[in-house]
Design a protein that fits this description.
two-stranded antiparallel ribbon; 178 residues; 33% strand; binds magnesium ion; Rossmann fold
Length: 178
C-alpha cells in the first residue's frame, strides 16, 4: 500500500477540493467573456488539471506540454522540453502545474509560450514552495503554500511514483534510503 510510505498528510482530499473550487471560480471570474486555454505540464499536472477544469464555469480549452527538471528529489536546473509546444498563438493561456519550487520550469515555459505567440500567459499552481525560489517568478493562482520539504501525491512524484495518492503528503525517511 502506497499509504504505508507516508509520514504526514500535508494537504488532505477535502482541502484539495476546496482549493480547486476556489481557483476554478476565481479563473471563471477573471476570464469572463474570454476562452482561456489551460496548458498542463505533464505529468504532474494531471489530477489537479482535471479537477480544476471541472470547477471552471466559462468556456475554456485544454492542452498539455511535457517538460521536466527533476531527478529524485533534486531539481536538475536544466529544463527538458520533451513534447511539442501546443498551438498557443493569440490565446489567453493559463499554465497549470503541480508545484512552483525553484521557478525554473515555469519561467522557461512562460517565456517559450510568449515566444510562440500567446496573447497572455498566467500561471496556476496547486502548491507554492516560496522558500525554494531561485529565479524571479510568481504564480497568479495558487492553491496553497507548503514549506520547503519534498511532497508527493495528487500528481507529485518521487521517481515517478506516488502520483496516484489522492492527497499530498511527506514520505517516510526510510523511502529515500532504499
Ligand atoms: P521548479 O523548476 O524547481 O520550480 O520545478 C517545479 C517542478 O519540480 C514541479 O513541476 C514538480 O514536478 C517538481 N517538484 C518540485 N518540488 C517538488 C516536490 O516537493 N515533490 C515533487 N515534485 C516536486
Ligand atoms: Mg512536474
Amino acid at each position: 500500500m502506497l499509504e504505508n510510505d507516508i509520514k504526514k498528510v500535508s494537504v488532505s482530499v477535502e482541502e484539495l477540493a476546496l482549493m480547486n473550487k476556489r481557483l476554478g471560480s476565481q479563473i471563471s471570474k477573471d476570464y469572463e467573456g474570454k476562452c482561456p486555454m489551460l496548458v498542463g505540464l505533464l505529468k504532474g499536472c494531471l489530477p489537479f488539471m482535471s479537477d480544476l477544469f471541472k470547477n471552471i464555469t466559462i468556456p475554456c480549452t485544454i492542452d498539455y506540454f511535457k517538460v521536466s527538471s527533476y531527478k529524485g528529489t533534486q531539481s536538475t536546473g536544466v529544463i527538458n522540453v520533451k513534447g511539442e509546444c501546443p498551438d498557443v498563438d493569440a490565446k489567453d493561456v493559463i499554465i497549470v502545474d503541480d508545484i512552483l519550487d525553484t521557478g525554473r520550469t515555469l519561467k522557461a515555459v512562460k517565456e517559450l509560450l510568449i515566444a510562440h505567440g500567446a496573447k497572455s500567459v498566467k500561471v496556476c499552481v496547486l502548491l507554492d514552495k516560496p522558500e525554494g525560489r531561485k529565479v524571479g517568478i510568481s504564480a497568479d493562482y495558487v492553491g496553497g503554500n507548503v514549506p520547503n520539504e519534498f511532497v508527493v501525491g495528487y500528481g507529485l512524484d518521487y521517481n515517478d511514483l506516488y502520483r496516484n495518492l489522492p492527497y499530498v503528503g511527506v514520505l517516510k525517511d526510510e523511502i529515500y534510503q532504499k
